[in-house]
Amino acid sequence: LCSFCSSAYVPKTEAGHCKWAEVLKDLERIQTSKDIDVSLYTANADEDVKCLEFVMRCFFLETEEIIQECRIKNCSKTQDVWNIWKNGNESFEKNKLSSTKSEKCKECEEYEEKNFTEFVQNFVKVIQRDCK
């Protein structure tokens, strides 16, 4: 996907540590980015708890769109976005879907499209819910 990205990526998982802590840090770094202007399918932070895993997958899937946008525009935060995507995918590979999809859970494309800022804010809220 990105030749210069892999060298700077270091997966971090510490016992008793929220598995999304690094993602949260990267989200905070990109939150104020002015050069990312993209509409993304954005799940609500208060989705049914049974759907949390699917909601997380949708957020990580949408980060691929941000990576594409950053490639085109050469964003200042490309590395941070790449780290978010990489951390998310690695975590999901290690932890195969533990829940079966409930009828209540939406497909990613069923969520409303929101701007980048709202997307990041909701992503942060969902991660914080998962990390409690």
From TrEMBL:
It is found in: Secreted. Its main location: secreted. Pfam families: IL15 (PF02372). GO terms for cellular component: extracellular space. Signal peptide: none annotated. Keywords: Cytokine, Disulfide bond, Secreted, Signal. One of its GO terms (biological process) is immune response. GO terms for molecular function: cytokine activity; cytokine receptor binding. Belongs to the IL-15/IL-21 family. This is Interleukin. The gene is Il15_1.
